[in-house]
Automatic annotation (TrEMBL):
Protein name per Swiss-Prot or TrEMBL: Glycoside hydrolase family 43 protein
Residues annotated as domain Alpha-L-arabinofuranosidase B arabinose-binding: 314-447
Species classification: Bacteria, Bacillati, Actinomycetota, Actinomycetes, Kitasatosporales
Family: Belongs to the glycosyl hydrolase 43 family.
SUPFAM superfamilies hit by this protein: AbfB domain, Arabinanase/levansucrase/invertase
Amino acid sequence: MNRTLRAVLALLTSVAALLGLTTAFAGTAGAAHPPAGQTTRYTMTAFTNSSESNLYVYDSPDATGFTLRKGPAYTPPSGLIRDPSIFKHTDGFYYLTYTTNWTGNTIGFARSTDRVNWTFLYNHTIPISGLTRTWAPEWFIDTDGSVNVIMSLTSASTATHFTPYKITATNSALTAWSAPTQLSGIGPNYIDTFVVKVGSTYHAFTKNETTKYIEYATASSLTGPYTIRKTGNWAGFGDWVEGPALVRLDNGGWRIYYDGYRAGKYWYSDSYDNFATWSTPTEVPGLSGFIRHATVLKETVSGGVTLPVNTTRSLQSVNFPGRYAVVRSDNLGYIDPVTSSSSTAVKQSATFTVVPGLADANCYSFRDSAGRYLRHWDYRVRFDSSNGTAVFNKDATYCPRPGATAGSVSLESYNYPGRYLRHYNYALRVDLYQNTDTFRADSSFTVAGPWA
């Protein structure tokens, strides 16, 4: 963990204790990865720089490294498919809504059983007189189960003065909709409004089309009135950015994806303090510069990787199969050669007890024979005795993902999603996922029998 961030965490934890709060990070309360036999799947739908009329579908086990499932996956019978938004309905179908054209008063709908093969349903006309543009429809499912679409509308002769509105489905088939209602307090000239609800508060992320920043607003009702809380470059997202879309991570944090359209980049950033601060923006690996205005659907599905708990095992490097994760006398982690002729001490250094994760029992921690845990510090892997703090527990917890080869596993940092246990110059680190075969091999291990 970065020392500056660690100091901030410690300060906030101390303040929380003084105030009698149960946690400094309400966003992580009750968060957990899926249990054995299940896993998280993040499905991304996007249009691309190469086509505004074709849908591309990707998915990911970790919300960081996305794999193309089909592209193009859907082309509407006419018009565009800009700004595609996806959700899964209670009827078991996946639904898309999208911008049908640069001008006009309709949004499109399509349906799928498998997320990759789509059937056009219909274009819905928004009944507002003089409407000239109907952009960026986004699904919002409220806690009462109501299905809503939030979109940016304008009646101006040019692409200005957008204001967010919502419509609500009036039947379960999603073929009938309420009259549009404005989200008061946002606008005019705000587009790409994306709303999430935490507790009883609605949080809106919306692009100020004048300043080109993503701003932040809150309300106690979906339709407002919203109060703009943050403006300018408040989160470090930069300007000339649009298309914000949020998803909850397994460890309780929130991830925002957004389109840096002027620079031709696609970014994500994470928050763990109810949207007050955000991590340094990171390009979406392998997709930055190609996808445009994506949304991401999170689901729990069957499958996943499981490890045998309360047993001793060794972690064998996939691309250096004669080397194993070890702890050396300097308490740091490496991959070193281990053979049947190695000393007892070397064999012992490569043997760990796999236990339920200290921060999340559905993930894993690794304890050596001295009782120390494999944890990260400034992104370097070391072995330390537990000090019982929440920070230590998170540093020492890793969540399993499929590795680069059949039967192998990659271990994602619990508190730094997107960072993986990997070797570099034989030293073990937690490094940010890279969309390369080398990184995938460096971060894959075979869980082998114990050496000692």
